[in-house]
Amino acid sequence: MTVPRDERPDDQRIVLTGIGLTAPNANSLADFRQALLEGRSGVRDYEIRYVGKTLAGVCDFDQRRYQSRKDRRRGTRAGSVGIYCAHEAIVDAGIEWDAIDKSTVGIYLGITEHGNVETENEIYELKGYDYDTSFWSHHHNPRTVANNPAGEVALNLGVTGPHYTIGAACAAGNAGLIQGSQMLRLGECDLALAGGVSEAIHTFGIFASFKSQGALATHEDPTRASRPFDVDRSGIVVSEGGCVYVMERLSDARRRGAKIYGELIGYAMNTDATDFVLPNPRRQAECIELALRRAALAAEEIDIVSTHATGTTSGDIQECIALRQVFGNSNKTWINNTKSYIGHAMGAAGALELAGNLPAFGDQLCHPTINLDQLDPECRLPGLVANEPRRVGPVRYILNNSFGMLGINSVVIIAAC
User: Fold this and answer.
1) Domain containing 319: what range?
2) What is the model's pTM?
């Protein structure tokens, strides 16, 4: 039987006390929220080797704020994103970092893929030397190991507790939060830096692959290219970005008088086990229902659902089938999408999309899905908020969907505190 959260001991209740992020349209939570309420897209024209002109969500943050020029040269874009977000989260949480025992800090960052950027770049450079491997960079191995993004954050911050990345395709941002909460409950760390990062736009392979599948979005106006649920959607806009949360036990957060963004009260992960790419709405619905059971909530108690929808025909429709299965025709739950603003930030998507919705606990606004001019009838949902923010009254619970290739599904539920 699931224990209601108010009956759980405070050292088993996990809260979010700091948020650091970089998105294609903002570099802080306040600016990100403002962009979402104003309908400001971060998608722009972009060109990448071998693929040529395309579109992407490109971040523009100060890489030198927390890294030296030397460290930035030696490291990776994903590491730089993670370092920026982690520092910003720590500052936001009001933590006196120099006073923290670094052996009690854990770093858990979700990623979709890592190492492709460095490998593609090295091979491209090597071509100019007739593929003589003596010119291969000695930094290649540490740049491409799977734990690199979290490891770069650990090196930069001097963390000696556990660090690793969670490879969970596009469900990875949620997976980072789930892992952080589990490790806190187990006592494996006292403070977790958790979330997701992506450097996806710097590898031509991901663009070429989506293009070959007919799943790469195009539009004469880049800001209107990402259009989930719309009849004229044409596919995915690839983006980079990152979002890192400071996570703590409620007992520790209360002891230091921390501000609390919300409490992670339910989560679930499962697998479709049916296809490499095509989603399974039944399994997605089961994942949502499991998260609801663990949170001891009925579906109609959820105030906002943040959808995963990427702007592909099959993906959007299948998720809508799952949502109708769980929420029926309820008009008590509002539904939105954040990829319409920033594109698909892959490993960072779930963490970023959740962050954009958390301020609704305070301002009681549900940001809309933008670029939704003509709703696909197969994506019809009673509470879908389109094009303009909606004042929805008190918000108590937010549910965040994040799904990925090879049928990996993740859901987290955050409650107001």
Assistant:
1) 264-415
2) 0.97
